[in-house]
Structure formats: C-alpha cells, structure tokens
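Readers outside the structure-tokenisation community will struggle with the description of the input data as it stands. What matters is that the chain and its backbone geometry are given together, residue for residue. For illustration, here is how one protein appears when written out as sequence plus structure tokens:

…
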Amino acid sequence: SNFFDQLMRREGPFRTNVRGVKPANFRVLMNYNMPSVLLECGFIDNAQDAAMLIQPKTQDQIAALIFNALNMYFARTDPRFKPHLVK
C-alpha cells in the first residue's frame, strides 16, 4: 500500500492532479540497500502550483502528509513502532 499516494489523493493541496505511483529505475533511487521513495509535490514551472508552493500553509500540509505517511509505513512494518500523526 502506498500511504503517501492515498493521503495526497484524500488530503493533499494538489489532490485534483495526483499522478499516482510510477515504479521505475530512477537514477536517484538506485544502488541503495533500503526502501526509498521519490516525491513530486507540485511543479514550480506551473504558475498555479508555484503560487501554492510558496504559501506556508501549503508547505505545512505537504510536510504533515509526508510525516504521516512515513509514520503509517513504519507502524505497518514494525510492530514496536508507535505512530504519531499530525494534522
């Protein structure tokens, strides 16, 4: 399950434009011996996205979504992990 994708579709500031999960051999994710993810949270070359991305409220929303998704992932993969979600 992709927690970030689910949260972005439900709560993200760009939820109408979520492009989904695209597994591929991205160079920035290669040769690591651990789980990794590459996130795109809006595009600065899109005027509407750029206007939103400079807003502290949007930045806080994105940070909270990433934090919550990581918490949900670790809670699912490690029974000892106690999640702490933010709003």
